[in-house]
Design goal:
single chain; about 240 residues; alpha/beta; Rossmann fold; 2 domains; six-stranded antiparallel β-sheet; five-stranded parallel β-sheet; 8 helices; 11 strands
C-alpha cells in the first residue's frame, strides 16, 4: 500500500513516514501541495495524510484540489487540524494536530479497509483489492480484519506471523474454511491465534488474493459462517478472560 504525507513540518513528516513504513506502507513525504498533485497524476496512493499548513496551500485547499479530480475522488484523506468548519465535514477523517502518530496510522489503516470493502465490487482495479493488504497487528485487530475479509467476499490466504509462530487462514468468497496455527487446525486454531493476538498485539499479517483453484486440495475444517464463528469465539474468549467454565 502507498501513503502520501503532506506537511510543512519536517520532524512530523519524518516521524509519520517511519511509522507508516513500519506498518507496511510505501511512503512519500512532500511539503508542496502543487507538486504533490503532479505525483498524484502518475500514481494514486491508498491514503493521503495532510497537516493544516503546507508550503504553498492549506490542507483544506489541497483536499479541494484532490477531490476536484474524479480519478482521486475515492482516495481516503486524513487532515490533521485543530480547527473545524462546515467545509471539513466533507473530509473522510479530521484529527487533532497533536494526535499521536500510531493513532494516525491506525485510523488511516481502518479508513482504507472500510473504503476497500465498499468499493470491492464496483472498482476491481483498486490496488488494495488486487494485491492484498499487509500490516501490523497493532494497527488493526484480527477480528476486524476477518470481518472485513468476510464482508468483502475475499478469496485468498491470510498469513499471520506472531511471536516466532505463523498461522494460515483460507477464505473462499468471504468464508473462512480452514485455519492452521500452533499444530492446531479449524476453529481451535482460530481461537488460539485470536487469544495470542489479544495478549501479544505484536505481529505482522499479509493477505494474498487467490482463486479457489489455488487451494482446491486444502482441507475444509470450518463449517460455520465467518460471522457465526467470530461471534462464538468472542463469547468463548470472554468466558476464558473472566474464568467462566
Amino acid at each position: 500500500m502507498k501513503a502520501l504525507i503532506l506537511t510543512g513540518q519536517p520532524g512530523r513528516g519524518s516521524a509519520l513516514k517511519d511509522s507508516f513504513a513500519l506498518s507496511g506502507f510505501d511512503v512519500q513525504v512532500e511539503d508542496s501541495a502543487l507538486y504533490a498533485m503532479t505525483l498524484l497524476e502518475r500514481c494514486r496512493p491508498d491514503v493521503i495524510v495532510s497537516t493544516a499548513t503546507l508550503r504553498d496551500l492549506s490542507g483544506i485547499e489541497f483536499f479541494d484540489l484532490v477531490r476536484s479530480d474524479p480519478q482521486l475522488a475515492l482516495v481516503p484523506f486524513v487532515l490533521l487540524d485543530n480547527t473545524s468548519s462546515p467545509h471539513t465535514s466533507d473530509l473522510d477523517l479530521i484529527m487533532p494536530a497533536d494526535t499521536s502518530i500510531p493513532e494516525v496510522v491506525r485510523s488511516a489503516y481502518k479508513l482504507i479497509l472500510e473504503l476497500t470493502r465498499k468499493t470491492y465490487i464496483s472498482e476491481p482495479t483498486n490496488p488494495v483489492a488486487q494485491h492484498g493488504i499487509q500490516g501490523q497487528l497493532g494497527d488493526v485487530s484480527l477480528f476486524e480484519l476477518a470481518q472485513w475479509l468476510a464482508k468483502s467476499a475475499k478469496t485468498g490466504r491470510l498469513r499471520v506471523e506472531i511471536e516466532a509462530g505463523s498461522a494460515s487462514w483460507l477464505f473462499t468468497r468471504g468464508q473462512l474454511i480452514h485455519a492452521e496455527y500452533a499444530e492446531k487446525s479449524g476453529e481451535d486454531a482460530v481461537l488460539h491465534l485470536l487469544l495470542k493476538a489479544e495478549s501479544q498485539q505484536r505481529g505482522h499479517f499479509h493477505f494474498e488474493p487467490l482463486t479457489e483453484a489455488d487451494f482446491l486440495l486444502e482441507p475444509v475444517t470450518i463449517r460455520k459462517s465467518t460471522d457465526q464463528l467470530l461471534l462464538s469465539l468472542a463469547v468463548e474468549m470472554d468466558h476464558r478472560q473472566h474464568g467462566i467454565n
